[in-house]
Amino acid sequence: MRYIIERPLESLGTNTVLSYLVDSQKISYVSQGPLRMNVMRMSMHGFKMIPGHITPLMSINKMTVEDVRRQAVEKTQRGTTTLITSARIDYLHEAEHELKRTRHLLISSSIDYCIGLSLSPEKITPNIIRYCKQKKIPFIELICDDFSQLTRVVWERIREANFPYGTVIFPKFPLDIEDKKKKIWHKKWNDLSANMQIPTLYKDLNEDEPLPLPFLKMLGIYPQKGGLFSGSDADYCLLSTEGFEEKIMSVIVRGTIVYSDKNSEKKQGYGKEIIITQPRRFGESLSSRV
């Protein structure tokens, strides 16, 4: 589907519009001012237009199909256009099966998704890192009970196997530990990963919040997702600007409406897996920071 979005810039004190040409599921051209083309036009007067959110929903292969579907729908209604998720494994030989199972759980998703691996620190090996490099798996989440687990990994061998793809590796600490202890563990991990040159995220993923831009760059999802410019996927949300609170009216993935407030769920199965050809595409520092 080919169409033009005309986005007024009144909030910037100007009467001009920003025009986006959506073609083949992507924003193919952006222009300040109207585009003179004979295609369908959408005016954003009365709406606020923002990039779609990229939000975590980790280790879904431990959930039921119904739970995954319900959570994906809830996140879509809050403006998510891409899910970050993972397949939980204990050993390398389980990876193929669990990735396939995770893809199957997302088969009815109307939004896109990117899949990594989750495992305990004791299970990470150079062979798993080489597998991630071969299969273009952009991240590994290490499920930790204690920081000491991270100190027993031979990071020199992991670093060597991780070159040049650079799978991003980050820990997930227990939710029930004190904030002070968690901050100390994160600081120790950030120091350790910097010394060992391991690409990482500097803090926990929050499943209730969209990923910040530094995380998107680190994982290699940006600029395909997370922005509204030429070459990015046409993923965006339309918010009502009437009243005191902004309300999501529509969610669009690759140029197609997958949710509107007048129709709670549309386009089941439209979502597709995003393959990350290269994390840290723009040479971000090894620890993503705001």
Explain what you see.
- By secondary structure, the protein is α/β, with parallel strands linked by helices.
- The protein has a domain at 53-219.
- 24% of the residues lie in helices and 28% in strands.
- It has helices spanning 65-77, 95-105, 126-135, 148-151, 155-161, 179-196, 213-219; strands at residues 3-8, 17-23, 26-32, 40-43, 47-51, 53-56, 80-88, 112-119, 139-143, 168-172, 200-201, 236-240, 247-253, 256-260, 287-288.
- Strands 6-7-8-9-10 form a five-stranded parallel beta sheet, with helices on both faces. Strands 3-2-1-4 form a four-stranded mixed beta sheet, with no helix packed on it. It has a four-stranded antiparallel beta sheet with strand order 5-12-13-14, with no helix packed on it.
- α3 (126-135) packs parallel to α5.
- It starts with a strand and ends with a strand.
- The relative contact order is 0.18.
- The model has no long low-confidence stretch (mean pLDDT 92).
- GO terms for molecular function: hydrolase activity, acting on carbon-nitrogen (but not peptide) bonds.
- It comes from Fictibacillus arsenicus.
- InterPro entries: Metal-dep_hydrolase_composite.
